[in-house]
Structure prediction request, 691 residues.
Amino acid sequence: MKTVKFTLDGRQVEVEAGTTILAAAKAQGTFIPTFCANEKLKPYGSCFVCVVEVEGRANLVPSCATAAADGMVIKTESERVQKARRTCVELLLSDHFGDCLGPCMSACPAGIDIPGFVKHLALGQDREALELIKHNMPLPGVLGRVCTRPCETACRRHLVEKPIAICHLKRFAEDSVSDKGQEYLPQRAAASNKHVAIVGAGPAGLTAAYYLQLLGHQCTILDAHEKSGGMVRYGIPSYRLPRNVIERETAVIQKLGAEIRYGVKVGKDVTLEQLEKDYDAVFLGLGAQKATAMRVEGENLEGVLSGIGFLGAVSKNESYKIGGKVMVVGGGNTAIDAARTALRLGSKEVSILYRRTRTEMPAWSEEIEAAEHEGIKLEILAAPTKIEKKGDGLHVICIRMELGEPDKSGRRSPVPMKGSEHVRIVDNVIAAIGQGVDATMCPDLKLTSWGSIDADLHTGRTNRDKVFAGGDCVTGADIAVTAVAAGRRAAIAMDQLLMGLPVTGDAKRYNHTMGKLEQIPKAVVEKFEKKERVPMPHLSMDQRTSTFAEVETGFEALTVREEARRCLECGCRDAHECRLRTYAGQFSATQTAFSGECRTYHRDDSHERIVYETHKCIQCGTCVRLTDEILGTNVMGFVGRGFTARVAPALDRQLAMVNDKGLDLIVENCPVGALTFKAAPVPTLAPHFKR
Prediction:
């Protein structure tokens, strides 16, 4: 047997003459990426992602089609090689039209596997749905009620009629398991003998504790309040979020081993420096619990309350005394919650004063509508300028506004109208115009110009090596699911610190997308029949305003199955195996590096078992070569010439019309998700959180 000797990445290698560089590298355990190379087929050399550098040659060479030769000096990794591979992948991405993940999943800050858990619910697998949700988010009962649903905003079902009721379904997964007297308690890793202090038992802190406990670390949660939940308890009324839901999801975290110490204030009862000394790591989930001032004269008078202060007081005592006439100032969710809460406490006249129009209100539209249905008056384009206390109540001097030019947020700025001052007489004013972060209890911690904690948004790490932070205390007041996502990311990064690894945070994966809703071709959804979204049942109007009972009463099981079956199952069936996605992440490629004409959406599902999505094909030619070299039948071929050439079923027919022999082999060897089996589900995340 004749052999050749050469140098591969600085090592002397000897192989049989005629062996390709790719095969020789593989035998040595050296990975070289490739799309078109296939051990069953002759070398092809079309994709060029397998290029390597050979000393003395001006151009890079395709390792799959170049035989190793005596004396060669080969580099499989160099800056030049990496750049060439990235370019090849980006060229393929520029002509690849598809989604790696469902758009709902991509839009979810916590990355919850939405298509996966919705499919479980459609099949009646409630516990499996809950397990999958908890891979990324441990508070489905809470967030299923209070999340503002960015996932539903992105849902492609919008293009048919209305989005899937994702949050209602998420709530059902947790409620149904709990209602059966069960709970999902995942298995913990072996104890690491590491201890973590977590400050704050809100969404970020509870989430960090959940995942750190799963990873084997012992957590002690310190909270200034007497109960868990943070702002979801003390900033959201119980008619939206029953307290027993918070209790049972907190109890799961405690059963995993976390200890919670209530009534402990950092900066007063214990210092950050002491926590750093006593624990192996510290996580700060302080929230944003400092009310923003209105900056009007008289706002400190008796009877003027802050929105979060008012909601916090009512959370502790739902018989809290409030006046008969209440004015709420603000347009966010806290303002709506405060107004609806005042109504339930017995106020006869409740109004919301907002300086812009209803369109600009940041509050959730469903909550605004609910407030109006309950009799709360919305007064737009008005703002208070002064508050005076007189014998008949608080005299609020207000002024009318008109919209001027857009400000930094993109919204048109409210401009006072001269001569429009008028007086409103009320018993209480509730100011709900924003929340800030109070991090003064943590000296020597670097803060941003906004007063929030300066922490890496991916890892949560602060300027103090052992201290991490996440949630509202880093981002400013935000939605709960964002805090949950931050808690999980920080847990992963803290685990790396505790295990002596580089702190890089959760690994990021490349995700291709078809684009925003308005960019999606009609062909993507035209086969789906209209089927209206199942409405959430509510308490009757006369039952609502006299009680703090939960307004949304929840779906029945049959309703859940019906609603879950509306899911379009967006996302690629080959997402976990797709080489294009893997290499795009490996080479930090982007889908927008090259612009120009891109293939259009075309899905051939005429075959009873197999679907061909031509918009995902990367022209590697593997299916055509399998047809020609192995099968010897008319299955797949090239149609057209040059740039417009496309891989298609033989003679450009429908897939159902070609010879079926060997088609399974072709599907199994497709390196991307262009050819897939219909029975294959959209892949889900693993249902367990592991290191």
The chain has five domains: 3-94, 103-184+521-564, 195-275+439-498, 293-433, 598-677. The mean pLDDT is 94. Residues 173 and 496 are 31 Å apart (CA to CA).
